[in-house]
Specification:
Length: 308
């Protein structure tokens, strides 16, 4: 006499194992949906306040927007425009790209390709410690060491060095991760073909890693773009356009009016603070779009190269 719970034509053992597998699959689906729901709630808890703040900043910036803010300099009465701060921010970011980008990419290449276990552990530990130092502490150290001790004064060079020190750990980490994600077969194949190590690194290994390296550079630049405390200690502020003088010359930057002018009583100062914040948001968005374009182009170049 057969059991009614067992499907006709299937042995009892096989039917039981199928029911167990179906129960496990149902539990996995339930746990997966639950975790996705928790992740969605966490994302919303972070994204909604950020979107609310950004919407408020954009609304205030657009409400009092004047195109002349892009062409006139700031006056001593906290009026005028922000052309001097835009130029100063551009110079600071360009210097950080050169200094931090060069040191960070070189450090990442060393950790991924050349360092031993002990040396790599020391460098990674130092980089992680440096990444955890608050930016205001780096700014104060830069003030004591560069502005005061070396007698550079508030200057572009001091701002470059402090912000580069702030950004280097991020670039080192992303470069190392990007290079370690390159398949080992690429290195083995280039070695089997007799390529020199430096040539194989440039032509075979770095190309697939370019999207990750470019993303790390853009993220580091965006971090430097939004910093205030290190620049207060090293660049100070100026109502005039920055010069090519590397030392003993104050440099204007966009985060200064956002932080300072907003607390002043005049309406013109509040308007400049809102406009500076809006310009910074636009610059960050442009950097994000630029990073996507660079990643897309490097990935396409890599795919075409691998196809050939």
């Amino acid at each position: 006499m057969s059991d009614a719970s067992v499907p006709i034509g299937l042995p009892a053992g096989r039917a039981g194992s199928g029911l167990v597998a179906a129960g496990r699959m149902a539990r996995r689906r339930l746990v997966n949906r639950l975790l996705w729901g928790i992740a969605g709630l966490m994302t919303a808890s972070v994204g909604i306040p950020v979107a609310w703040v950004l919407a408020g900043v954009v609304r205030k910036g657009v409400a009092g927007w004047r195109w002349s803010v892009l062409t006139t300099t700031t006056t001593s009465a906290n009026g005028g425009g922000l052309a001097n701060a835009i130029v100063g921010t551009t110079l600071i970011v360009a210097g950080v790209v050169v200094i931090a980008g060069g040191v960070g990419v070189a450090g990442g290449v060393y950790l991924a390709e050349f360092s031993g276990a002990r040396q790599g552990s020391i460098v990674r530990g130092a980089s992680e410690v440096l990444a955890g130092v608050p930016s205001i502490v780096l700014g104060y150290v830069g003030y004591v060491a560069l502005v005061y001790h070396f007698h550079w004064g508030f200057s572009l060079l001091a701002a470059w060095i402090v912000l580069s020190v702030l950004c280097v750990p991020y670039i080192v980490k992303t470069t190392e991760v990007a290079l370690r994600n390159v398949p080992t077969a690429y290195r083995d194949g280039s070695e089997a073909l007799g390529m020199p190590t430096s040539y194989a690194l440039r032509r075979v290994v770095l190309r697939p890693a370019l999207p990750g390296i470019a993303t790390g550079l853009i993220v580091a630049v965006a971090i430097a773009l939004g910093e205030t405390a290190p620049l207060l200690y090293t660049a100070s502020w100026s109502d005039r356009f920055p010069t090519t003088q590397l030392t003993h010359a104050n440099v204007p930057f966009l985060t200064y009016p956002v932080w300072t002018f907003y607390n002043l009583p005049s309406a013109s100062a509040h308007r400049l603070a809102a406009e500076a914040a809006l310009i910074l948001i636009v610059m960050v968005v442009v950097l994000i779009v630029l990073s996507r374009i660079v990643v897309a182009r490097t990935q396409r170049h890599t795919e075409n190269s691998s196809g050939r």
